[in-house]
Sequence to fold (332 residues):
Amino acid sequence: MTAQGDDQHGIPPKPRLLDAVRDRIRTKHYSRRTEQSYSHWIKRFILFNQKRHPSEMGAPEVEAFLSSLAVERNVSASTQKQALAAILFLYKEVLAVDLPWLDGITRAKQRVRVPVVLSRLEVERILALMEGTHGLMARLLYGTGMRLMEGVRMRVKDVDFDRREVTVREGKGGKDRVTMLPMSLATPLSNHLERVRALYEGDRAAGLPGVFMPDALERKYPSAGKSWPWFWLFPSASLSSDPTTGIRRRHHTHEQSLQRALKRAVSMAGIGKPATTHTLRHSFATHLLESGYDIRTVQELLGHSDVSTTMIYTHVLNKGGRGVVSPLDRLR
Fold:
């Protein structure tokens, strides 16, 4: 029976596969980026298998797809892992099928990369070339060790001036953590909030819908989205339509605008390193370790679940050849 016939008899048609995937992701409160990533990889998996429905396939097709990514596409280990997570989510959460352990996968090579780190002087040169909101955001990322999206998604309530703390909400893995508020940013942030407050008041006077609320908070606290504490710390200058609900409201500033501003500053400073917003986070960690802070403290500030992830910065501290002085430098 066709989907149209089902509808005529009062039986709703089955949702399309990707719609069912998105519904399940939103039910489990995964981030929008995870939704986009999972949808992308599930599409790729289906196209790889000549548009066959996943319910008609199983472990052999999954193994062939993932092996193809490693062998033919030469993707990184993390990319292959992401694709696997998406497909396992499809089978377990949407199709209610548990796949056996996938032994036949050709694993992509796990490469250990030493992160790009800026010196303190290089950070100073870059930040000196960044002004306004972008300059404030870049200083906040470097001064707190936050990831790009953690900083972009901050709310007014996440900054505690009295305790000199910043609360990072829904970080990697859905975890919250607390980091320091740099004292040098207290006054600039206070001045920034005065300008943001004027924008907030204008939105309320115009009768605009409140800002996006995470999880089910919009239903639980209908008026919270219109309250000052929940307003974006870095709101967008223009309105946009929510891709999930279609509601036209004020979203946070777009992350790409900060990325472009930093890229321009790096170029203007004449720095020959591929520095990005994430480089500020790497530099934050390295400079703290150089200052003598213990690695467990840095781990907590960065929000790493395992100290082995934080240990990568000790490679940067060795300053070439594991800190050994070259015999060439001992010659007269």
Residues 132 and 192 are 9 Å apart (CA to CA). Residues 120-316 form a domain with the hpI Integrase; Chain A fold (CATH 1.10.443.10). The longest strand covers residues 235-241. The radius of gyration is 24 Å.
